[in-house]
Amino acid sequence: MTSTTRVPAVEITGLYGTVVKTFSKKMFGKVPESLGVLWNSPPVLKLSMSLGQKSSRWHACDEDLKSYAHMAAASLIGCSWCLDLGYFQANNEGLDLTKAREVPRWRESDAFTPLERDVLEYAEAMSQTPPTVTDALSARLLDQLGAPALVELTSWVALANLYARTNFALGIEAEGFAASCGLPPLSQPGRVASQA
Fold first, then answer.
1. Can you tell me the mean pLDDT for 100-115?
2. Alpha helices of the chain — where are they, by DSSP H?
């Protein structure tokens, strides 16, 4: 992390702590520093990890669409940790990295299909305070995705908001997951992506 968090990290200890560290090393290659912040309340960390594991088993909505939606919500909220992780996971899951890299500037990018643009708009609209989702956008997505996928996408974006807003409020920032894979930096809004 590049700055000091708003809540100090504590040492991850005990049997459950060992499980958390082992799982984290398997998933990320290291124990993220941010887990020490969340370890201040193991029940909160446990719920967060459980939600992540359970939601990863949802398959009504396309994984690329959910990945882009999560990153769009994180970008709007300003969660660099979530963007870094999303880009890292896109790489590890074989998703379209060119598109994943362009999510922060999706409105200016020509990388996305009309459906993907609707999904990105929906994720941002859900993430506004108050939400700005319209009947027209919802109807387009319902028509293109079907009810099960739209319900899943909506819940996915809601979870992305939970994680992004938590991290942002606690001052948890990117930890270099994507850079550790040698991925080019994410595009920035309003800037043309450079060729890497």
1. 96
2. 14-28, 34-38, 42-55, 63-77, 80-92, 97-102, 114-127, 135-145, 147-170, 177-180
